[in-house]
Amino acid sequence: MSDAKIKKIRVGVASCGIAAGAEAVMDLLKKEAGAIPVEGTGCLGHCYAEPMVEVLLDNGESVIYRDVKADEKAVRNILSVGPENRFEIPPVRKAKELVKVLALAGRIDPTSFEDYVANGGYKGLEKALAMTSAEVIDEVKLSGLRGRGGGGFPTGNKWGFLAAKQADEKILICNADEGDPGAFMDRALMESAPHQVLEGMLIAAYATGATKLFIYCRAEYPMAIKHLKIAIAQIYEHKLNVVAGRELEIIIKEGAGAFVCGEETALIASLEGQRGTPRFRPPFPTDKGWMGYPSMINNVETFGNIPLILREGGAEFAKVGTEGSKGTKIFALAGDLKYPGLVEVPMGITLREIVFDIGGADPEKVKAVQTGGPSGGCIPVELFDTPVDYDSLKKLGAIMGSGGMIVIGKDRCMVETARYFLDFTHRESCGKCTFCRVGTTRMYETLERNVAGKGEMSDIELLENLGPKIRMGSLCGLGQTAPNPVLATLRYYRHEYEAHVRDHQCEALQCNALVDLKLDQSKCVKCKLCIKNCPVGAISDDFVIDNTKCTRCNTCLDMCPKKAIRRVKKGSN
Amino acid sequence: MTEKYAFLEKVGREPSNLIKGLQAVQGVEGYVSDESIRAISEYFGIPEVEVEGVLSFYAQFKRVKPGKYKIAVCDGTACHIKGSPLVQEWVSRALGISDGETDEKGHFSLETVACLGCCSLAPVMSVNGRVYAKLDRKTTIKILKEYEAK
Predict the structure, then answer these.
(1) CATH number of the domain where residue A445 is located
(2) pTM score, two decimals?
(3) What is the value of ipTM here, to two decimals?
């Protein structure tokens, strides 16, 4: 490194950075850095390396540090642009990813209007305002952009529907109720580049004639809400909320914790201050939405794409991706892999590339991947050459969903995984449709029975019978997709179900009721750590585990320095 | 309107702000009490039973007074796969309370939440909104002890 001086230091202080301890790092850096400005920034997507600090030098270069601790040594290393803990994006990942929508995440101060503008911000809006609203919609149609919330409806067409309506007032809603457990793309975008989402909304408002703009954000995302509020105030300050002579009102509404509110008609009911239950369509929201006004709902990531489309043009945007799915998609990678975090990739990339090349998962240890959260399905490792686009995933019984991607290792039980998802959906069912309310509960109870070793072969039939009925008998996406995790696991891992109900065995050794714990006396060094820490006193003085007392809490497994305790098939002790 | 709930004036009286009103009450009092339901009903001109109907629909609203330290154990997909049921058990056992309960001293309350959005740092839990990542038994117990001493 030349003797370039430090111009600025950025610390990643999005939610996950803070969870990893970034605040303490930032406080310490501020104290020690003297005259060098220390700023907070958003998420770089490399959650496995948090807390992360970027040092910008006055020669234009920058050095990123990973796993930074809040101690003197780490701070000294950073302030001297030292060699330790430097971060490089893994080269395989760099070759496969295509960062467009997230380009500014972690690169700008999300609370600074000037930072956003200096990086091309509001250029898209400027371009849009120089066009007619019909031309803007044509540009979005040309881009081939489809809804990123999971549905995959062509965005330009939706805009066209709202634009064609004549009404005193038209409503635009940003769906930021990212409720899929395992998905955090929208949170990162709102926390790291709130202006980008808002610019997309302003362009949409211009194109469709909407005057009231809602952002329906989950209350569990306080930082996203804070950054959006700051950004909205800046928009008002710079009068960007006046488009084509119309003054737009931008309102943030906090959700109150109901998964079903991701469904558009339920979301509208919630915005009206009611119970968030969906209703029959038609009328579609573009005909009759919030308080009866024509309304249109797009997802956060969809809006995040809009400024790019306007800036580079729809045709250029459409060069990336596949025939039916254009552009890039952000995925939230988590589960059994080496590099969890956010990743943005071109549509059409294969699951193999995402999970193994980018995610760094061990091919020997992966069983499947779950896309689309509780509404999606699992895709077994044998089918990982499938390209990631809306239509290919649907064919496999999974869905693109909003972008959650959970890697499931070989030591996870698929029956338990399905049970987990049904536990979620049956609780989140709003109760309006009988098949969803009762059907998902029956499915859940059946799976509970199976993992407890109390199932029967007829249970499999029952699950297969219920699935299509719930799908047909439900009004909204929640019910229509709720059986997916069960049906997909049954399709690919039927033998696991059979082993549970017929033989009362869990081959992954995950289901507590179907495993015993065994202490291997030949490995044991008699340190007594297990005996001291067992919460129920299930281990005798001569180191034998009493499986009738044991609750399978795994404490002794974690404690044992010699790994002498294992989970084994029930009854094999 | 009683003095106590004067802060509702800032919310705005349109019925579409009902959820916002409930959030304001919970923000101040930590939960939604019978008394506050009466105040909200009066303020918005919506029958109490309907207020209760809306608030019981949403997981966010609490009808039981929470403890001084609110523990939320994440049971989102990623956390579940990484062992969040164990985290729940460790916490439950250490504090003697289960999901949705507050301990006798009013010091801790425990709930399971769908997803805190920190999936890549799983398993996680939060105490009064502060997220703790990559939990194992030792760190979980240590965190609880720290709050216990506060």
Answers:
(1) 1.20.1440.230
(2) 0.91
(3) 0.85
